[in-house]
Amino acid sequence: MRKGFFLSLIFLILFTSGCWDRKEIDELAIVGATGFDKVTVNGRHMYRAISYVYKPAEMGGGAEGGNGKTLAPFWVVSELGETLSDAEKNISARSSRFVFLAHSDMVIVGERLAREDGVDKVMDLLLRHKDLRMRNLLYIAEGETLRVFERGLPQFESTLSQELAGISEKSLPIVSKTYVPDVKEFVYSLLATGRDPVAGKLEVFPTPEELSSPVGNEEPQSFVRPTGAAVFRESKLAGWLTDTETRGFLYVINKAQVGIIPLKLPNSPQENFSFQMTKAKTKIIPSVKNDNISITLEVKAEGNVGTMEDSVSLAKPEDIKKLEALVAAEIKQLIKNTVDKTQNMEADVFGFGEAVHRKYPKVWKNIEEEWRNIYSDLQVEVKVETKIRGTGMISNPITVESR
C-alpha cells in the first residue's frame, strides 16, 4: 500500500510538473519599451499602442541589409484600437512571435492622451498585465509617443530604451534637473491622499553636434532627452516643469542629490560662481492656527565651491559665510518659483496635503474636499541653511595680471 502511494507520487511529479506554458526565447518578440497615444482617424478618436521590439540578430552591430545599410537592432511597431487594450492586442497580429513585455524598461504616454483622458486607463492596463514589471520608468512625451520612438536614435547603446534607462539610472541623479518615477511610485502618488503625481518628461530636440547615425548612412536630425517633469492634477496632465523648476521640486521631496547651482556675485553681470551640492535634506512642517493652514519648509544643503570666476578671496570664514548666504537665497527662490507654479496648476505634487493629513487627521477630514482650492493660496515659508564644506585645492581664485 505504502509502496503504491510513493509510486503514484513519483508518477505525478514526473508527468505533471514543469512549466506547461513555457515559451522558447526564439519564439518571443522581446519589448524594450511600450507606449500609448490618443489620435484622431477619419474624425474618430482612437488609441495607438506602440512596442519597441529588440531584434537580437542585429544587436551585435554587424548585420547589413541588401542596400548596404546597417539594419536597425530594433523594430518600432504600432497599431490602433478602440481601447488601449484593443490597440495593444492588435500588435500581436503584426508579429510572428509572442509579444513579451517582461523585459520592458519604460512606458511612454503621449501628451494628448495624458491631457484629455488622463493616465488612469493606462495605469489600469499596466497593473492588470501579468508580464509588465512595476519597475518600468514612466515618461510623458511632449507631443506623440510614436514620434519619440521614430526620432530617438541612440548614440552609446544599441537601442533607445537601453540608452534612456542608462541616462535615468546613472546620469540624471548627478544633475538633479529632472524626475523620472517608476510605475509603482507613480501609482502610489496617484492613489495617495493629499498628493498629486509627477512623471518624467521626454522631448525630441535637434542636436547641435554633427553626429553620425548608428543605423544607416544618414545623419539624424534630432534626438530624445529627459528634461524637467510632467505635473498631474489627479490623473490628468496639468503642465510641465522646467529643469530649474524641477530642481526646486526635488529639494522639497528630498531627491536633490548632487548638482551644480550657478550664481552671480554682487555687482557681477553674469554667473561667475558655482555651488557644487553634495547633500540636501528638507523637512515639511504643517501648521494649523486659528483655522489657517501653512507649511514651513526647512532645507539644509551642503556642498563645495565648484568654480570661482572672480577675484573674491575664500581664505577667511566671513568670505565663506557671504557665499553661503547667496546659495541659500538661490535655493529658496528655486523652491518658491516651483511652489508658485504648481499652486497656479492647483497640483499638490509635494504632498503638503499628505503632511497635513498625517499631523492633523481631524482637520484634514473637514478640508479634504476643498484642499485643491486651499493649496492654490497656501502660505508656504521656505527656510534654507547652507554649508560650504570645501573650496577645493585652492582658496584664492586664479587671476592673470595684464602685462
Report on this model:
- Strand 1 (28-41) and strand 2 (44-54) form a beta hairpin.
- The chain folds into two domains: 25-241, no CATH class; 254-403, Nutrient germinant receptor protein C, domain 3 (GMP Synthetase, Chain A, domain 3, 2-Layer Sandwich), CATH 3.30.300.210.
- It has twelve helices and 14 strands.
- Strands 1, 2, 3, 4, 5, 6, 7, 8, 9 and 10 form a ten-stranded mixed beta sheet that branches. Strands 11-12-13-14 form a four-stranded mixed beta sheet.
- The protein is an alpha/beta fold.
- Helix 8 (243-252) packs across helix 9 (317-345) and helix 10 packs across helix 11 (361-367).
Shape: globular
Helix/strand order: HEEEHEEHHEHHHEEEEHEEEHHHHE
Question: What is the overall number of helices?
Answer: 12
Radius of gyration: 26 Å
How far from one another are the termini? 108 Å
Number of strands: 14
Show unreliable segments.
Answer: none
Overall tally of structural domains: 2
Strand content: 25-35%
Structural class: alpha/beta
Q: Provide mean pLDDT, rounded.
A: 83
Amount of helix: 25-40%
**Could you give a short account of the major beta sheet?**
10 strands, mixed
